[in-house]
Amino acid sequence: MKQDTLRPGDLVVAVSAAIHRPARLSQLAESSGRSIGEAHNAVRRLRAGGLMDAQTRAVDVEAFAQFVVWGIPVAFPAQRGEATVGTITAVPLIPPTAPESSEWVWPDAEGTTRGTAIIPLHSLVPSVARRDPRMHAALALIDLARTGSTRDRAAAAAGLESLLRDGAGRG
Questions:
Q1: How many angstroms separate the CA atoms of 31 and 159, rounded?
Q2: What are the CA-CA distances from residue 38 to residues 32, 45, 67, 123 (Å)?
Q3: Under 8 Å between Cβ of 46 and 34
Q4: Residue 10: which of 62, 55, 50 has the closest Cα?
Q5: What's the pTM value of the predicted model, to 2 decimals?
Q6: pLDDT tens digits, residue range 114-162?
Q7: How many other CB atoms are there within 10 angstroms of residue 3's CB atom?
Q8: Which of 12, 140, 4 is nearest to 78 (CA)?
Q9: CB count, 10 Å around CB of 34?
Q10: Is-contact 120 72, C-beta < 8 A?
Q11: What DSSP character marks residue 55?
């Protein structure tokens, strides 16, 4: 038996489950950009981590928001890269001090913004963000928690909690 721990891409599945409330695993896989098997494994790990209800596949939004503030910056810290073109991500309350840029971006060949690269939680994050503005906003808030100050993390958690609660109603 081995430890079943969260992976960065599992957070994309959690966000998708909270926003879209999919009835089937295939819908969750499609909306999160993962295969059905990857989505299934992510759900299993999210349940084991207490972030998702075992019966309903509903995300515990409050627990997830707390994980954004306290867990994500430690478990999945942001890895910054060079200046590049990509899809815009976290917009901090206090701008980054990188002299070449005031924007953070996920490196992306189809992106339109030049900025400092932030390696995304999963390689498919930029394409998921291009397809769905609510997913983009939620994933950018998670990146704000990964890259920002304590104040940024608190703002990211509050924004994410509001987005996920509101998003679930629009599914």
A1: 21
A2: 10, 11, 21, 13
A3: no
A4: 50
A5: 0.89
A6: 999 999 999 999 999 999 999 999 999 999 999 888 888 888 999 999 9
A7: 5
A8: 140
A9: 22
A10: no
A11: T
